[in-house]
Amino acid sequence: MDGSEQLSKRQLQALQTRENLLNAGRTVFLENGFQKATMTQINKLAHTGYGTAYVYFKNKDDLFTELMETIMQKMYKVAALPFKPRTKEEALAQILEQTRLFMQSALEEKEVMKVVKEAIGVSAIVEDKWNSIRARFIAGITKDIEFVQKSGLAKKNFDATLIAKGWFYMNEQMMWQLVLGEIEQDLDAVAENLTALYTGGLYK
């Protein structure tokens, strides 16, 4: 008997209600933006009873951070791709592909990411969530840098954590500019230039 069969009818109904609220939340945030969206609107669209949303989420900020976690899954998968290059050429090719996929994932969720950008600027809860997402990426990048330093592909005099932070922040800034349409260059040009800048300084 699997986990779903062990859940009671009430538990299944609660899971469905939560899912309905998240789906409704996504629609409301996309239509109204973060600041103008309300829990009342979300409740109404989800066809749940008055105040039901507050049973599952403390406020719209809490609901939105749950949505953020969902849309970040694609990016997490990119960050989790195996990185064990044996040569500098292999490392550069993998970094270029990861950078391109990271940006592409954001562009595929462009409209939601625009709301994320807005929310980060006005909600401490959402900002904290984004900071935790940043920390997760930076930890993974640090591990990758330490690997290539130990294997002799990269310069050992660099602080892996500092370089990882710088690399992520560059990617993050370009990602927002792509999402908001603030630069003329396309995804491939951005990925190629960022990768060349990063690897040109770190690798031997």
Automatic annotation (TrEMBL):
Instruction: Keyword check for DNA-binding, yes or no.
Output: yes
Gene3D superfamilies linked: Homeodomain-like, Tetracycline Repressor, domain 2
Keyword flag Plastid: no
Pfam families, sorted: EthR_C, TetR_N
The residue ranges of the HTH tetR-type domain are: 15-75
The UniProt keyword set, sorted, is: DNA-binding, Repressor
Q: Which residues bind DNA?
A: 38-57
Q: Which GO molecular-function terms appear in the entry? A: DNA binding
Name of the protein this chain belongs to: TetR/AcrR family transcriptional regulator
Species the sequence originates in = Siminovitchia acidinfaciens
